[in-house]
Description:
Caspase-related_regulators, globular, 469 residues, Serine Threonine Protein Phosphatase 5, Tetratricopeptide repeat
Amino acid sequence: xxxxxxxxxxxxxxxxxxxxxxxxxxxxxxxxxxxxxxxxxxxxxxxxxxxxxxxxxxxxxxxxxxxxxxxxxxxxxxxxxxxxxxxxxxxxxxxxxxxxxxxxxxxxxxxxxxxxxxxxxxxxxxxxxxxxxxxxxxxxxxxxxxxxxxxxxxxxxxxxxxxxxxxxxxxxxxxxxxxxxxxxxxxxxxxxxxxxxxxxxxxxxxxxxxxxxxxxxxxxxxxxxxxxxxxxxxxxxxxxxxxxxxxxxxxxxxxxxxxxxxxxxxxxxxxxxxxxxxxxxxxxxxxxxxxxxxxxxxxxxxxxxxxxxxxxxxxxxxxxxxxxxxxxxxxxxxxxxxxxxxxxxxxxxxxxxxxxxxxxxxxxxxxxxxxxxxxxxxxxxxxxxxxxxxxxxxxxxxxxxxxxxxxxxxxxxxxxxxxxxxxxxxxxxxxxxxxxxxxxxxxxxxxxxxxxxxxxxxxxxxxxxxxxx
Length: 469
């Protein structure tokens, strides 16, 4: 389904050009790709914000690798995204060349969108890792092919998707990969995608943890577990929720649904979705004009005042120590169980709890002084707050600020932040720390953090792997 977003202010020439490009996108893609791409009448929304989505679903693979839920995934996610003002283009069952053309055409349009646009790419189909590269397998290609064939006939996540999307501090680009299997026996053998980090202005989410398999029902009337949760959270979420918080709520919902599943093998394979985030701007789910016009729902108990909730929310947003964040989030949820930012408070509570637990590890030497925001730049302050809420990538970025001087306090702070990032699940940071310890002649610590990196699902590229030898 494809729609055009309209602006309430008089459109500029640049906007008129952009609007024509949006109208022409389904036609251009359909002409080049054939029936695999869905187009629909152009409609308008009341948003002044540009939101674009490309949904790719590959169901048809050689037997026994067919993925029945894929088409339902695309249909349901399209409807959920359109509710929040996205112009959605869908492409189903495309061979590799057509798939690449669709992504490149979409990427070109996305890069021409306004600086603050929100862009979403979604792939559901077979995905795997070959030589540390994350691949998306085109329709008609067997995922059981030899590695060299898959490298030639599949799309690479970084090169063909992430690098095609805008990377802007004022906007947001999202890449969602729901790569699944239908065979429980095959899934129990392990394997999955490689860990990645998101460039500036981007969020990347996988259906399960790096190095782990995701599974799909073998029927076309059900969604995959990840997309089912994504659609549900999109349907139920408050418009004040940010996109990063949305994906963290999806992560929690996937875990809860699968851990409570009646089939033991599915409980055993309960997915823990992977998130890599580096989005400086807090983009809300509701488009700007809609959010401004929406009345605020009553959320406080009768004896409470709105200004009390606002003060508590402000204190929660400003806190930068995990224990403080957790306590303030718990206070908010206790006082305002139906508060308009309940979802955000739940995400912060859960993340801060994980952060506090990580700080208790014996191999993490990071103390409260490291979270001091005095004289820090706005970007560092943002990362300090994220790290206090369990953001593994923010913790790694903070560690890398201390790589220039590898002596004394600077070296200690680098090691502390990178160990903390590893404890939060960042396998890339763990591997970087292993290389650091190898460089300073501490082989036991190097081996420890290299082992942890691989446990976390990170496979270094061959060129980087040679550095440890």
